[in-house]
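Batch 3, record 17
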Amino acid sequence: MEVCMGQPMADDLGFLLSRASGQVVRATNAALAEHGLRVRTYSVLVFACEAADGLNQRELAGFLGLDPSQVVLLVDELVAAGLVERQAAETDRRTRLVVPTAQGRRVREAAGEAADAAVEVPLGLLGDAERDRLRDMLTRIWTATG
Amino acid sequence: MEVCMGQPMADDLGFLLSRASGQVVRATNAALAEHGLRVRTYSVLVFACEAADGLNQRELAGFLGLDPSQVVLLVDELVAAGLVERQAAETDRRTRLVVPTAQGRRVREAAGEAADAAVEVPLGLLGDAERDRLRDMLTRIWTATG
DNA sequence: TATTGTTATACTCTATAACTATA
DNA sequence: TATAGTTATAGAGTATAACAATA
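Prediction for the assembled complex:
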C-alpha cells in the first residue's frame, strides 16, 4: 500500500508562504491600527501618494492586484477618514483620480514608520541582502503569468 | 511640506508576501478542488498522514499555526469526506487523535501531485536553489518569536 | 485549577455578477 | 460596444470568547 511520499507539509512553499504572510500582515495591521489603517487601506494610500499625477481606481486595482470593486470600498474608507479625495479627471468623466490630502500624506508617513518598525519582529532574522533576494523572488512569483 | 519618503509599495515585503501568497494559494486551491480539498483541509490531512502515532487537535493547531477552534471545523470536513477519523486516545480521554483513513492517504497522494504541478505556474521562475533559500527565509519569518 | 475539544459570533478578505454613466 | 465606477452578495479566512468533559 502506498504511504505518504510527498514532502513534509512544513517544507511546502505554499504553506510557508501563507503562514509567513499571515505573520507579517498581523504585525503590520497591529501597528497600522493606531493610525486608523489596515494593510489594504494603507496600500491604497501609499500608491496614491506615489503617483505624481494621481491614479484612477482601475489603475489602483491593477497595481494592488485587487478587483476594482474592492478598491471602491477601500477608497471609501480613506475618503471617510479624510486621507484621500476623489477628483474628477479632465480627459475622461468616467474616471475618478484618487489623490491624497495633506493629512493623508502625514498619516502615510507616520503609519509607514510604525509599520516598518513592527515588521522588524517577524523579519528581524533576515539581513539586508536576504531581504533583497526575498523581494526579488516574491516579485517574480507575483508577476508570473498564470 | 513633507512628501512621501518611504519605500515604494511594490517593494514592501509585507505587500509582496501577501500578494505572492495569494497567487500560490489560489493556484493550489484550484488544483485541490478536484479532490474535494482546499489548502487548509489539505494541510490538516498531510500533517495527519505524517504523524506515525496520530496527532491530537491541539498539536495539529500548533503545527498549522491555527486556533484549535478552527481545527475542529477542518477536521469535521475531512471526517465528513471520509479522509480522516477521530480516534479515542488511550492515555487521555479528552484528546481525540486525528488519523487518516486508507482513502485519506490515497487522496493525499493524488492531491499532493496535483498541488505540486499547479504551483509550478507561480513558482516556475525560481530554481531549486532559490526555492531552498526561500523555504529557509519563510521558515525563519514564521518562527520568529513575536 | 488547567487543558481538550467544541460551539458561537463577528469581522476581514476574496470572488463574482450585475448595474450606471460615460466613452 | 466597451470601459470606469459602483452596488450587492456569498464564501472563505481569521480572531475571540465561552462552555462541557476530563485531567
